[in-house]
Design brief:
Length: 554
C-alpha cells in the first residue's frame, strides 16, 4: 500500500482550518476579558456561550473517536450486535437526566467547576482526593482517542500512527492553551459539522458496494456471520441493564459536561442545551451503526482485504476505517478519515481543558496556594495542559491498553464520584467522614470486581459470576451495586458521625476534620503584630480557641 498523498493533503488542510479557528476563538476570548477575569474566561467562557455553540460543543465532546468507532465495532461483532449498542441511548439519557436534575443546582450557584460543590460540602482536602478519578479518566480518555486516530491514519493513509498522534496532540494543546473554552467550543462547531457531513457521505458508498449484502436481510438472517441485530440472552439482561445505567448516569459526573453547563448565560439556556445535545448525540450514532451493519454483511473475500475476516484477525476495533478503506472509493475514505480526526480532536481538547481547569482552580488555588493571583492561576492551568497533554500523548502509544484503562477509570467515576456529587447537591448534612468512607468502599468494591480487559481476575465473585472460556464474567450488575453501596455509605456514615459527635457520645476532640467544630484562625491584628515582631505580655499568645459546634450547611 502506497502513501495516500491526496488524503494526506486533505488532512493537513483540515488541521490547519481547525488551528485557525482555535486561534480566532482565542482572539475572541481576549476581547471578552474586559468584563471577566482571565481564569473565568478560560474555564467557563465568561458565562455567555450562546445556544448554538453550546449544543455543538456539548455534542462534539461526547461524539468522539471512541463513540463512532465503538458503535460500529459492537454492531459488527458476531458476539454482540446492535442490541448491545448502549452509547446512543445512554448518552442521550445522560443529557436528559442532567438537564432535569443537575443543571439548575449547578448553574444557579455560579460554580466554576464540578469540584466546587464537592469541596463546599466535604472540604478542600477531601475534594482533592475526589479529583483523582476524573483526572485519570481525562488523561486516559485523551490518550485512547489519540491512539484510535493513529490506528485509523495508518490504515487509510499508510502513515505511521505515531506521527498523527504527535501532530494531533500538539495542535490540540496549542489552541486550548491560547483560547481555553472559547477555542474548544468554536473548534467543536467546525469539527461536529465536518463529522455530520463526512460520515453521511460515506454511508451510501458502503451500502451500495457489490461485496455487501442488503443490511435489511442480514439483520435477521445469517449469511457471512450471525444476524447483526444481535440478541440479549436472559442470563445477560442484568449485565445489559448495568452497562446502560453506567453510560446514562456515569456520564454526568464529568467536568467536560458541567463546563458547558456553567458556561451558559442562564440555567434555562443550560437545560435547553443539554436536552438538544442529547437528541443530537443519539442521532450521531446512526452512521456508525449503519457502517457496522455493512461490515457484518460483507463478503470480505470479494475485497482487497481478503480472508480471514477482520473478526478472525482480531481487527474488529478497526472496522470503521476498514470499511472506509476497502468498501468506499479513495476520495470518500479520506473524507471519512476527516470525520474521525474531527471526532478525536473535539473530545481531546475537552478532556485536556477539563483536567487542567480542575487542577488549577480546585487544587492549586483552593488547596496549595490560596493567595494566588488570577494571572498565576491561568499560567498554572496552561502549564498543566502541557504536562497532562504530554502524558496523554505518551500513553497513546499503548493503544488498546489505554482504552481499557480509560474504561476502568470511567467506571470508578460512576461508582465513586457520582454518588458524591448526588450527596453534595441533594442530601444536606452529608460530610467529609461519609465522603471518605463512601469513597474507600466504592473504590475497593469496584477493584475487587475485576476487569477482564486488563486481565485482572475478580477477587469478589458476585451472584451469577460464571467462567467463560477460562475467564470469569460478572453477570450481576455490580457496577450499579457498587455505586448504590457507596451512596448509602456516604449518607449513613455522615449522619452517624454527626449523631455520635453532636450528642457527645464521642469526644468533640475526635472531630479531626473540624466538621462539627470551628477553630478560627488568629485575628488579623494578631497576625500583623507577629509579622512586625510586636511581642507584649498581652499578645505573646494567640487568642484562645473559640470552639463552636455547628452542623455542616450545604
Amino acid at each position: 500500500m502506497a502513501l495516500n498523498v491526496p488524503g494526506l493533503i486533505a488532512v493537513i488542510i483540515f488541521y490547519a482550518m481547525t488551528l485557525a479557528t482555535g486561534l480566532w476563538a482565542a482572539w475572541k476570548a481576549k476581547k471578552n476579558e474586559r468584563n471577566n477575569t482571565e481564569t473565568e474566561v478560560a474555564i467557563v467562557g465568561g458565562r455567555n456561550l450562546n445556544l448554538f455553540v453550546g449544543v455543538f460543543t456539548t455534542t462534539a465532546t461526547w461524539v468522539g473517536g471512541a463513540y463512532i468507532n465503538g458503535a460500529a465495532e459492537i454492531v459488527y461483532l458476531p458476539t454482540k450486535g446492535f442490541a448491545w449498542v448502549h452509547a446512543p441511548i445512554g448518552f442521550a439519557a445522560t443529557f436528559f437526566i442532567g438537564a432535569m436534575f443537575f443543571v439548575k443546582p449547578m448553574r444557579s450557584k455560579n460554580y466554576v467547576t464540578m469540584m466546587d460543590p464537592l469541596q463546599e460540602a466535604f472540604g478542600d482536602k477531601m475534594g482533592s482526593v475526589l479529583f483523582i478519578p476524573p483526572l485519570l479518566g481525562d488523561i486516559f480518555w485523551f490518550a485512547s482517542i489519540l491512539a484510535s486516530l493513529g490506528a485509523t491514519v495508518s490504515v487509510i493513509l499508510d502513515v505511521k500512527g505515531f506521527l498523527s498522534i504527535i501532530i494531533s496532540a500538539c495542535t490540540v494543546i496549542l489552541y486550548t492553551i491560547l483560547g481555553g473554552l472559547y477555542s474548544v467550543a468554536y473548534t467543536d462547531v467546525i469539527q461536529l459539522l465536518f463529522m455530520i457531513i463526512s460520515l453521511w457521505i460515506c454511508v451510501p458508498f458502503a451500502l451500495l458496494n457489490s461485496a455487501s449484502e442488503n443490511i435489511a436481510y442480514t439483520a435477521v438472517h445469517k449469511l457471512y456471520q450471525g444476524p447483526w441485530i444481535g440478541n440479549i440472552q436472559p442470563k445477560y439482561i442484568a449485565r445489559w441493564l448495568d452497562d446502560l445505567a453506567y453510560l446514562s448516569l456515569g456520564g454526568i459526573a464529568w467536568q467536560t459536561y458541567f463546563q458547558r453547563v456553567l458556561a451558559s448565560s442562564s440555567s434555562k439556556k443550560a437545560m435547553v442545551t443539554s436536552y438538544l445535545s442529547g437528541i443530537l448525540c443519539a442521532v450521531m450514532g446512526v452512521p456508525s451503526i449503519l457502517i457496522g451493519a455493512v461490515a457484518a454483511s460483507t463478503d470480505w473475500n470479494q475485497t482487497i482485504y481478503g480472508l480471514p475476516t477482520p473478526y478472525e484477525r482480531n481487527e474488529s476495533n478497526m472496522i470503521l476505517p476498514l470499511v472506509l478503506q476497502y468498501l468506499c472509493p479513495t476520495y470518500i475514505s479520506v473524507v471519512g478519515l476527516g470525520a474521525i480526526a474531527a471526532a478525536v480532536m473535539s473530545s481531546a481538547d475537552s478532556s485536556l481543558l477539563s483536567a487542567s481547569s480542575m487542577f488549577a482552580y480546585n487544587i492549586y488555588k483552593k488547596l496549595l496556594r490560596k493567595t494566588a493571583s488570577d494571572r498565576e492561576i491561568l499560567w498554572v492551568m496552561r502549564l498543566s495542559m502541557v504536562l497532562l497533554g504530554s502524558a496523554g500523548m505518551g500513553l497513546a502509544f499503548l493503544s488498546n491498553s489505554v482504552y481499557d484503562l480509560w474504561f476502568l477509570s470511567g467506571e470508578l467515576v460512576y461508582a465513586v464520584l457520582f454518588p458524591q456529587l448526588c450527596c453534595a447537591l441533594f442530601v444536606p448534612g452529608t460530610n467529609a467522614y461519609g465522603s471518605a468512607v463512601g469513597f474507600l468502599l466504592g473504590l475497593i468494591l469496584r477493584l475487587l470486581g475485576g476487569e477482564n480487559s486488563l486481565k485482572i481476575p475478580p477477587a469478589l465473585h458476585y451472584p451469577g459470576c460464571v467462567l467463560v472460556d477460562g475467564v470469569y464474567v460478572q453477570l450481576f450488575p455490580f457496577k450499579t451495586f457498587t455505586m448504590l453501596a457507596s451512596l448509602i455509605t456516604i449518607i449513613v456514615t455522615s449522619y452517624l458521625a454527626q449523631y455520635l459527635l453532636m450528642k457527645k457520645i464521642l469526644p468533640i476532640e475526635w472531630d479531626m476534620g473540624n466538621v462539627f467544630r470551628k477553630v478560627p484562625s488568629p485575628t488579623p491584628q494578631y497576625e500583623l503584630e507577629q509579622q512586625v515582631g510586636l511581642q507584649t505580655p498581652e499578645n505573646t499568645e494567640p487568642p484562645p480557641d473559640d470552639i463552636c459546634q455547628h452542623f455542616s450547611q450545604k
